[in-house]
Amino acid sequence: MPSARICPLAEVAHRLSAASPLGAEPGALALHITGDMHLPQLGLDDPLADLSAWVQAGLMDAGPGLHGVVHDGIAVPVAGPRIALVLIDGSLHLDGALTAHTEPDGDANRPTQPAHLVVTGDLHARSAVLARTHLHVDGALHIADLLWCHGDQGTLAVQGALVARVAVFTGGHALHIAPAEQVAFLIDEVRGGPHLAEFSCEAVGALVPHALLRRLSDGEHGVADLLDRRAVLAAVRSGGSAARSSDEIAAALPIADDVFTGTDISIGNLRAALRSPVIPHKQFTATGWFGQTDFLLCRKHVDADGDARDDHIHITVWKTWDFYLSVDEAPVRTGLRARLGAAARLRRVPTAPRLTLAFRAYAAGVPGPWQPLDAASHPAAWQACERAWRGVLDYVRRGVGQHRAHYPLHHRLQAEMTAASIEEFTSLPVFAERCSDWWDDAHNGWWEGDVWLGARQPCMHNGVPRARALKFSWKNGDDAPGDAPDTTHSTYQMDVDEAREGPALVAFTYAQRQGEPREPLPPCAADHMARLLRLHHGLQAQLRPVSAADCPADAGHRAPPNATEAPPG
Q1: Residue 29, pLDDT score
Q2: What is the pLDDT of residue 233?
Q3: What pLDDT digit, counting tens, does each position of 105-159 carry?
């Protein structure tokens, strides 16, 4: 059986590494346990509470000013100075969760800082949700379900292997992890490498149940902003799971990892993107966007004007960079003799694929001249191009994954956002009675969290019939020089088409910037469909209990304008 003592933190400070951020806090205590520990769970916000549940003996004096309970030599105080450090000389096995999440809230009865934890052996737990604490494991860290470390006031140091099914690192949490890292599903905003959510936070919605998400977040402020931390903590502390099963994750987020070879800007990778089903069958081009970046994929063809188009990808980072990446066939040998020889043999001049890279930078919102792009001459442009290029690859991988899985998100969208459901939703009092004028900025919609929403009821406007529509918008980035007001609002719009035989259909369209023509939402745009579904269900849950009297009088004063909308047809 393990033994333990409660002592001043200074007495065990020498057991900590020189780089440890823990100091000899005046009056702070350490709980020093010798031997392997097996507990149901451990909350570092109040570690003695979980240990008290494990102890089954009577009261005793545990030291000056401390009174607690004891079992097999372990004294647990009921009241007194807080425990600043739990030091376990051995391994720790938790059937449930390890948590540390204290946040300052002005409550004088709550500790202002969770305890820190040092384990000299291995640590096994079902889940770990950590913030504002320092966890140091000399051995291996095994997390069967979810490991989430958040915030720049915390540290995770693992000397042995890190083994986790789902790991999420956010908010600048310091990480010192040995190279032996085995994580099946990784979202890592801390170390800067490519990961599932590098270009869209919607990936986290595939990893955790929807009940643990903040559904009215626009997803533009990082993964942590999308996760409901209190709900995640409650789930793991109650013994439940905070992560979907691996099969559910694979089904919700199918990714085709075999499409590209690495992430290099290469002829093979460029052509793989252009030969993918992201470009629809019998078409030669496709467009897409994420964040402030949009792109055009163009497969080699002769356009309607008779101009030959080479394989190329055009990428724009809004009013910052333009990149042009193309592949054409260049002669292997040039000169008159080579051409005459080929003509005499009735053969074409031998060619080989050639990669051409070009860029232009913007100044004060105006693009400069096109220039050849290479890493040595233009390192800043090259770095920006590499990142934007990785975003395109990420988009294509997910699009191909959707295609191979027969577009599950697109089918969900059609099944859950039907014409009947949109009619029912937009007939709620907040739309029909208080926010019903599509062309009046004061009454066309309002903000719920990060999301603006508005609805158009069927009507005649300027002699033109208008069908029912539902619109969601959110702030996407900052204004650039020369931008019109509200340009930086991105939009999803659902238009109900009833002018046909049979059941009404819904047209799903989107635009990266307010005022741009909306385009049909492609079935391969996985992140956009995931976001649209999340916003839709979040707004449904938020507004169905709301009556007309609850709609704010100034509902639409900050709404993105609809004035740029073109008449139908």
Answers
A1: 87
A2: 95
A3: 444 455 568 999 999 999 999 999 999 999 999 999 999 999 999 999 899 999 9
End-to-end CA distance of the chain: 78
Residues 6+ apart with CB under 8 A from 189: 169, 170, 171, 195, 197, 222, 223, 224
Nearest to 81 by CA among 37, 51, 113: 113
The neighbouring-strand residues paired with 466 are 459
Supply the pLDDT for residue 459. Answer: 87
Greater model confidence, 454 or 1: 454
Q: Which of 77, 53, 47, 51 is nearest to 64 (CA)?
A: 77
C-alpha span between 8 and 303 (Å, rounded) = 78
As given in the structure block, the two tokens for residue 349 are: 């001049």
Q: In Å, what is the CA distance from 468 to each residue of 121, 390, 454, 547?
A: 63, 38, 11, 21
Asked if 400 contacts 521 with a C-beta cutoff of 8 angstroms, the reply is: no
Beta-carbon neighbour count of residue 548 at 10 Å? 13
Task: Give me 399's structure tokens.
Answer: 């699009």
Both tokens assigned to 407: 């577009």
Q: What is the pLDDT of residues 167-182, one digit of tens each?
A: 999 999 999 998 889 9
Structure confidence at residue 103 (pLDDT): 64
The residue behind tokens 């909306």 is 518
Could you tell me the pLDDT band of residue 78, with boundaries at 50, 70 and 90?
very low
On whether the CB atoms of residues 318 and 362 are closer than 8 A, the answer is no
What are the pLDDT digits (tens) for 502-560? Answer: 788 999 999 999 889 999 999 999 999 999 999 999 999 998 876 444 544 444 434 45
Q: Are 474 and 220 in contact (CB under 8 A)?
A: yes
Residue 21's CB is within 10 A of a number of other CB atoms, namely: 12
For 510-561, the DSSP string reads EESSTTSPPEE--TT-HHHHHHHHHHHHHHHHHHTT--GGGS-TTTTTTPPP
Q: How far apart are CA 511 and CA 560, in angstroms?
A: 13
Q: Residue 79 carries which side chain, given as an amino acid letter?
A: A
Alpha-carbon distances of 2 from 37, 49, 71, 539, rounded to whole Å: 7, 18, 10, 52
Answer with the residue of higher pLDDT: 382 or 339.
382
Structure-block tokens of residue 189: 């905003």
The answer to whether 201 and 224 have CB atoms below 8 angstroms apart is no
